[in-house]
Amino acid sequence: MPQILKIDADHSADDIINSAAAIVSRGGVIAYPTETIYGLGTDATNEQAIRRIFDIKGRNFNNPISVIIGSRGDVYPLVASVPDAAQRLADAFWPGPLTIVFEASDRVSPLLTAGSGKIGIRLSGHDGARRIAQMTGKPLTATSANLSGKPECADAGEVIRQLGDQIDAVIDLGKTGRQMATTIVDATEVPPAILRSGAITSEDILQKTGIIVR
Fold first, then answer.
1. Distance CA 211, CA 139 (A)
2. Cα–Cα distance between 20 and 171 in angstroms, integer?
3. What is the pTM assigned to this prediction?
4. What's the CA gap between 47 and 54, in Å, rounded?
5. What would the pLDDT profile of 138-197 be if each residue is shown by its tens digit?
6. How far is 107 from 213, CA to CA, in rounded Å?
7. DSSP of 150-161, one letter per residue?
8. DSSP element (H, E) containing 48
């Protein structure tokens, strides 16, 4: 069984975040809650740790993996440029359930981009997820904490039932806020393209940014 990190009489939220960040920093893999579903997290600059994510999920290397960052400024080392559309999307929806796809910088592992040269990045609206990335000082992988092809998980129990002892720890902060996945928008396209529909709709994007997405 993985280690269960849960707030109780002896462990505060800060304790849980610190423990999770320590596991990630040494190349471990955690399941952690976001504002949508549970994610599977490790240091997104550690090639061996990224490969372990693929092994755990049974995921094909042709599928990219997005990342969560700890603050807005953390986007810049990961991207070649920030298009105007990406800036407007981030201003409107970050922190929140929107992954924005950028042209990746040469610092980003091809394992994350699936050889596409593009990287999906999110500033999560979940304080815990964001703080883990802040504590490590590294981007955190943000693929869903489930076996490929199986249902996404909204609580720690579901994660354990699917992934068992393949991961090092589960951050148990109760059910996530909603069970709908994040929306993914490719801001490298003109006009930007929705790659996956989710918590933020095309109507939300148009209303808040004036951007018409495909």
1. 27
2. 7
3. 0.91
4. 11
5. 999 999 999 998 988 888 889 999 998 899 999 987 666 556 788 999 999 999 999 999
6. 28
7. SPP-SSHHHHHH
8. helix 47-57
Minimal CA–CA distance to 140: which of 13, 25, 54, 37?
A: 25
CATH code where residue 38 lies = 3.90.870.10
For residue 95, say if its preceding peptide bond is cis, omega within 30 degrees of 0. yes
Examine residue 157 and state whether it is found in any structural domain, yes or no.
yes
Counting the structural domains of the chain, the total is: 1
Instruction: Indicate whether 214 belongs to any domain.
Output: no
In a domain, 203, yes or no: yes
User: Residue 140, SS3?
Assistant: strand
Return mean pLDDT, the chain. Answer: 92
| Most confident listed range (32-36, 49-53, 146-150, 197-201) | 49-53
Confidence of residue 25 (pLDDT cuts 50, 70, 90): very high
Residue 66: give the domain boundaries.
3-209
Structure tokens given for 165: 């002892």
Q: What are phi and psi of 208, to 5 degrees?
A: -90, -20
> Torsions phi, psi of 103, nearest 5?
-70, 125
Asked whether residue 8 is domain-assigned, the answer is yes
Greater confidence (181 vs 42) lies with: 42
